[in-house]
What does this fold into?
Amino acid sequence: MESTNNYSESFYTLSSNGLILEKWTGEESLVDFTTDPKLSKVNCIERLSFKDNKHIESIILSDSVTHINSVAFRNCTNLVSIEIPDTVTEIGVAIFEECIHLTSIRIPKQIKELRNYLFSGCSALKSVILPDRITSICVGAFQNCAKLTTIQLPKDMQSIDDSSFSGCSSLIEIILPNGISKIKQASFKGCSSLTSVIIPDSVISIDTEAFADCISLISITIPYSVATIAEDAFKGCTALTSVIRPDGTTAFENIDLDSDVESEDDDSYIGIVKEGDREWDYMWAELAKDKINKKNPQPTVCYNDGESWQYMDTSYYDNKPQHCFRHRMHPALNNSSIHKLIPVSSDFNRMVDCEGE
It folds into this structure.
């Protein structure tokens, strides 16, 4: 037999037909719609209904709920968890904005769009489970979610709007689905832990400050599809030492890249070592000796694309010729992305010196 909990009717206001929760003023820490005869019939949570409530820590919505309107839970500063049923088909703007103790959430399966500022300022949010139907993330949806370390974007995602992940200072890696056409203004601005970005061939432009102040970003590969990049797209990316893009692209025509950023057209770019050369065997052997790879499962080092070590290029890093490698999901670092620089051999170094004379 299911337990019931009759909340005092002085705690809330319902519409005349009893289907819309218009206002909640109770001081309960747990609000469970499923256990109250009247609340269990509610199908719409009205805008502002829980806004600024400082008492609620946990909310359980019933299967009757289909709509949650804008700013419904905004600034519920003690809200830690909420269970939203898959019956919900619409969620409004800024519903959880400034819910600073919300730690995790699962978005209902029928939701297709994350509206503006949905989780903006949710500084404790660590885990978000998105349904496969999500096709767009709107302006500022995850802005300043400082504890968010990773998020898996659905494969059919088509749009990530301005400032969607700006200020996500713990975000380590983002893999953009092959369907995104634009990386919009300040999308990842201030993602200070971001070291790796996978840009798909579907992207045609990178807008103003898209990756500004990503101070841990080391290397980025620009696909041939990218036609335009805003001048300040990578402003403040002080660790960026390698920008790799295909021959013939015009994407950088109007950009004055900092002198410490490497590219295939830069004087600091040396070239690509060919498989089978003596230097090829040398640099992979040196990579295998690195202490981080001694913890690796066998094979110790591999050089396939994808989730394994990948050779990027040979360029001047810190004014020295070095081979650059990356690993997108290193098992010894909790599947984090990492870059490694291997100094060239003495024979190769002499060859570089001769070519520079």
